[in-house]
Specification:
CATH architecture of the largest domain: Sandwich
Mean pLDDT: 81
Largest sheet: 7 strands, mixed, barrel
Radius of gyration: 27 Å
CATH class of the largest domain: Mainly Beta
Number of strands: 21
Shape: elongated
Number of helices: 2
Helix content: under 10%
CATH topology of the largest domain: Immunoglobulin-like
Distance between the termini: 37 Å
Structural class: mainly beta
Order of helices and strands: EEEEEEEEHEEEEEEEEEEEHEE
Strand order of the largest sheet: 1-6-5-4-7-9-10
Number of domains: 2
Strand content: over 45%
Low-confidence stretches: 1-35, 291-298
Length: 304
C-alpha cells in the first residue's frame, strides 16, 4: 500500500503596489493541515506454530511431525486498521529456532498509535498464491506458506513500541504429503493436478484491508525432479467446511494417464495449519467407460 505523505501547502501573497483603492478583503477559510506521520520502532516476541515456514519433517518419532523455525532472512509485514504500516526483520539464534525477536520501523498516519491498539502481522506478504507448486518442501516453505498473527500494543515509550506476550503465528493453509501407488508400487509422476469436489480449493487470496477475496480452482504440481522417497509436499487451503473429496489426475513417468481420489473428512478441513499425510493414494488407469475406474483402496489420512 502506498504510504501517506503530508502535503504542506505554501501560500504566496501578492502585494499590489498601486495608488488605487483596495478591494474589500476576501476571507479565506483556515486550512487545517493533516496530522503528521509518526515514526515508531516496534519490537515483538514471536513464535512459530508447527507448519509455519521454514519447515522440516522430524522423522525421529512416530508419527512424523512437521516442525518450523525462524530464519534471519525473513520479513514480517505489519498492518494497522487494514493499512500497511511497515516491515519487521527477524533476529534469532541457534539451530532451527522456534522463537525470535521481530523489530522494525512502522509509520502511523491519522489517529495516533495508543496502548491497546491491535496490529496484524503477516508472513511473508498479503497476496497469497498457491499455483505453480513443484512438490518440494523447500519451495513450499519459501513461496507457498503464509501465516498471520495479531498482537496488542502494551507500551509506548517515546518512539519505542512493545506488545503483549508472544505473537503466535497461525498457518493459513495445510501441508499435505502425497504418495501415489499403482498396483501397490509407488510411481513418480511427471505432473499431477488436485481438484476438490466441493469446489473450495483456493488458488489465490488477496486482502483489501478489511476483507479477503479468493479465487478457487485446481492446483497443478509439476515436480522439479523425482523425489528419493516418492513423496510430494503440497500447500493447500480448502475453505470447504464439510466432508470433501480430492480427485487427482496424474501423468506418470511413462506418460500414461492415471486417476485417483481421496476422501477428506471435515475434521481435516475445520481449520488450516495441519500436516496431513496421504502416502498411499491408490491410482488406476481410467478405462473411460461409464463410471471411470476408481482408485485402489488406500490407507486413511494421517493427521499429524
Amino acid at each position: 500500500m502506498k504510504a501517506r505523505y503530508l502535503i504542506i501547502a505554501a501560500f504566496s501573497f501578492l502585494a499590489m503596489a498601486a495608488c488605487q483603492q483596495l478591494e474589500p478583503e476576501t476571507l479565506v477559510p483556515e486550512t487545517v493541515p493533516a496530522a503528521s506521520d509518526s515514526l515508531f520502532t516496534l519490537t515483538v516476541q514471536a513464535s512459530k506454530g508447527f507448519g509455519t515456514k521454514a519447515l522440516w519433517v522430524d522423522t525421529s518419532g512416530d508419527p512424523d511431525v512437521l516442525k518450523a523455525y525462524w530464519k534471519s532472512t525473513e520479513k514480517v509485514k505489519v498492518f494497522r486498521n487494514g493499512s500497511y504500516v511497515g516491515e519487521l526483520g527477524v533476529s534469532c539464534a541457534g539451530e532451527k529456532p522456534a522463537t525470535a525477536t521481530l523489530t522494525g520501523n512502522i509509520v502511523i498516519s491519522g489517529p495516533s498509535l495508543t496502548v491497546g491498539d491491535n496490529l496484524m502481522l503477516m508472513l511473508p506478504r498479503q497476496n497469497w498464491d498457491y499455483t505453480g507448486q513443484n512438490g518440494s518442501l523447500a519451495t513450499l516453505e519459501t513461496t507457498y506458506d503464509y501465516a498471520t498473527a495479531t498482537v496488542r500494543v502494551s507500551s509506548i515509550s517515546g518512539s519505542a513500541v512493545t506488545t503483549d506476550g508472544t505473537a503466535d503465528f497461525t498457518n493459513e493453509q495445510s501441508v499435505y504429503r502425497f504418495g501415489f501407488k499403482v498396483s501397490g508400487d509407488y510411481i513418480d509422476p511427471k505432473a499431477f493436478t488436485v481438484s476438490a469436489a466441493g469446489g473450495q480449493l483456493v488458488q489465490s487470496m488477496s486482502w483489501n484491508g478489511s476483507a479477503w477475496t479468493a479465487d478457487y480452482g485446481n492446483i497443478s504440481v509439476i515436480p522439479s525432479s523425482a523425489p528419493g522417497d516418492h513423496f510430494y509436499y503440497v500447500s493447500l487451503r480448502n475453505d470447504q467446511t464439510t466432508d470433501d473429496t480430492y480427485n487427482f489426475t496424474i501423468t506418470g513417468s511413462d506418460d500414461a494417464l492415471y486417476m485417483a481420489s481421496k476422501p477428506i473428512p471435515s475434521s481435516v478441513l475445520d481449520a488450516p495449519g495441519k500436516f496431513i499425510s496421504a502416502q498411499n493414494v491408490g491410482a488406476t488407469k481410467p478405462d473411460f467407460a461409464p463410471g471411470i475406474a476408481s482408485g485402489e483402496v488406500s490407507n486413511p489420512l494421517d493427521i499429524l
